[in-house]
Structure formats: C-alpha cells, structure tokens
Amino acid sequence: MDRRGLLLFASGSVATLLLIACVGFLSDSSTVTANTSPVKALAEHEVYYPGTEDLAPDEMRVVACGTGMPNSRPKQAAACFLVELGNGDKFIFDIGSGSAERLSAMKIPYDYLDKVFIGHLHSDHFGALADLWIGGVIGNRIKPLRVWGPSGHKPEFGTAYALEHMEKVFTWDSGSRQGNVDIRGQVLDVTEFDYKGINQVVYQENGVTIRSIPAIHALDGPVSYILEWNGLKFAFSSDTYPNKWWIEHAAGADIAIHECFITPRLLVEKQKWTPGAGLNVGTQVHTSPAQFGKVMSLTKPRMAVAYHFFNDFDTLPEQLAQVRQTYDGPLSMATDYMVWNVTKDDIRVRMAVIDEDIWPQPAVGEKLPPDRNTRIGFSDFTLSGREPFPEVVQKIYDDINAEYGTDYKVPTD
Ligand SMILES: [Zn+2]
Ligand SMILES: [Zn+2]
C-alpha cells in the first residue's frame, strides 16, 4: 500500500467508526439528549431543595439545622437536627442559638414544627427556642409548642423551671401580642422527665417512640435521645462524654449523631485557649474526635454523624484524621444544611440548597381574628403622643378593603 492508499484506508476506518458512533447515538437518543441538552433539566438532583421532594412512606429525612459551637457565626448555627418521617411527623432535636433561621429555610409550616426535644440547657442547645416559639406565632403556628427536656439535680436546674422563666422573660412580648394576632401558638406545653431514666420512653405517638438515656456533660441533667419508627433508629447525643448508656442503647442505629468537639490543639491554635483548658473542655467535658471514633466503633451505626465543631477547610483534615485513628466505618462530618435520606436499603447524603428569601408558610388550620377586647392597651400618657395621620391611614384601609372586598374601619380607640 502506497502512502495515498494508507491515507484512504485510515480515513475509511474513521468514517466507519463515526457511523457506528452515530448509530449508537440514534439508538439511545432520548437518554443522550436528556443528559446533554443545554435546555433540559438533569435527571437527578445532587442537592436537596427544601419543599420539592415527597418523603416515601418508609423514609426518614434528617436535616442538620445547626452543627456548630456556642459562638454564633454565619456558617454554622449551634446544635439542631430536624427529623422528618414518611408518616408526616417532624421532630426537632435541640434548638441551639441561630438554628431557628435554618429551620425556617426548610419551608415547613410552623404547625408541623411543634415538637422539640432538648438534650440539655446550654444556650447552644436551646438558645433559639424563644425564636421558634415567638417567631412561630407570628409565622402562623396556631398550635401549642410542645417541648420535652430533662430534670436537673435540683428543680431550678430542670427544663420546666427554665421554660417557665423564659415565659416570664417574654412577659412584655406575649402581652404585646394579645388582641393583635392569633395567639393560640403562644401556649408552651412542657414535659419534664427524669434525667436518670435509662432507655425510658418519653414520647410514643403515631408509631413513633422516643427514649432518653442519661448523658454526662458539665452537670447532672443532660440526656441523649433515641427515636425509633418503622424499623429505623435515629440516635442523637446532644452533648456528652463517652458513656456506657449510649454504647448500649444507640448500638446499631441507622443514623447516629454524636458530638465530636474541636480537637484540643485547634482550641489552642484557633480559639486561643490555654492547653489546659483545651484538654479539659475538649476531652473531659466533651468528646474529642478520637474519643468520638472509639464511641462509633462500638456503636456501629449505618451512618455515624460528627457535629459540634467548626467545619472549615483548615480544621476538617485534623478533625477527620483523629476520628480515623479509632473508627473506619461510614461517616459524615456534619455542617449546616447537610441532609440524610434514610431507608432500610440506602442512606443518601446531600447538601440542601437554600432560598434565603423565606416567608412563613400558611397555617394548617384556619387562623382566628384577634379579639381586640383582650388588648392590654396604652396609658392615657402614651395615647396623648399619637399622631394618627387620618388622611394617610384611611387610604391604606380603603386600598386593602378594595383589594380584598373587606370592610375594615380605622380603629378609634
Ligand atoms: Zn453543652
Ligand atoms: Zn454544646
């Protein structure tokens, strides 16, 4: 074959290959175009968009709404995990500072965010409770907010005392809403249980059982929770030093979320603590990453979730390396908006993509008009300072009445 013949042979081979490729393309054109067209959606979401996915009847979805520390920062709120079940039930485990805005980002009506389980009374585990409580009232919750939490070594260290006084702190706030909005969601329904109970049932409704076990953290009183439903088991430590109750009762959980505090070295380097404070808080008050790994190697969950550390590009490698000294199983190093879809066959881990322009969802039931007769009202002193601008306000009323076909009158009292 001369040089020209060689070229012809070569080009003929290329043509044959192209023809084969074209036939292959045509025979599977629907798949190929769906995956490659610049104007078609991709078949699969690699992220979770809140409010866009139904839960299967046998599915559990867990959303990290707070994974950080008591120090507030934009990237990570303090402890909060939302558990949603295929039967429609939703539960909040801890509600640390800053987490209420993460909960709102899930686009769930507040009537469904009505069950909160507090592990202990550090602000990074219940500091946003008032935000959910009061914000929920304004956000259309028309049901009481139900809260469960442990007793303490004295009554004033228990959940009931804390929430009774939280209500007192907000006396002015609550009073100000009387007669101005539907305040049925303002009722707090608090259940305090014995922190010493071991695998004691604290909630059992609609096929869901939640148990508490003692946790060891800072003072007597903290607990961890275990939720079981439809053959799935979720365990949440809140804060605790490694302990025998967790290892026994959280064993084999489908998803086990346990604190994994910042390493003592990072507490010194990044947080400017003394080595002594870093060692004490990092390994004695809390569970360090290496201790977390040891706990998980004994718990053997289908998915271990580490939280309660600042999860950054320069801290994650050290945290992870220490966990991996003692644990080689399935692991998520949590940050805010991480999402786990759990079924018996699969655990899918993704990040949620958040719409920051969140408005409250509608109430599930019908809202009642406020009873103006229950208003506390103003003193004559304050009333004497009002500038009512009747020509301005009358137009606002007229416009609204015209748009909605109503007949509201500007109050004269
Ligand atoms: Zn704590
Ligand atoms: Zn904490």
Number of helical regions? 14
Low-confidence stretches: 1-32
The proportion of strand residues reads: 15-25%
Residues in helices, as a percent range: 25-40%
State Rg.
28 Å
Mean pLDDT across all residues, rounded? 92
Bound molecules: zinc ion
How would you describe this protein?
By secondary structure, the protein is of the alpha/beta class. The chain is 32% helix and 20% strand. The protein has helices spanning 3-27, 29-36, 99-104, 123-126, 129-138, 159-169, 171-177, 244-249, 264-269, 275-285, 289-299, 316-323, 380-383, 390-404; strands at residues 47-48, 60-66, 80-85, 90-93, 115-117, 145-150, 188-193, 200-205, 208-214, 223-229, 232-236, 255-259, 304-307, 331-333, 338-342, 347-352. The strands form two sheets. The chain has a nine-stranded mixed sheet. α11 (289-299) crosses α12 (316-323). The chain is globular. It starts with a helix and ends in a 9-residue tail after the last helix. The site of one zinc ion has 6 residues, from loops.
Question: Keyphrases for this structure?
Answer:
7-stranded mixed beta sheet, single chain, 16 strands, 413 residues, binds zinc ion, alpha/beta
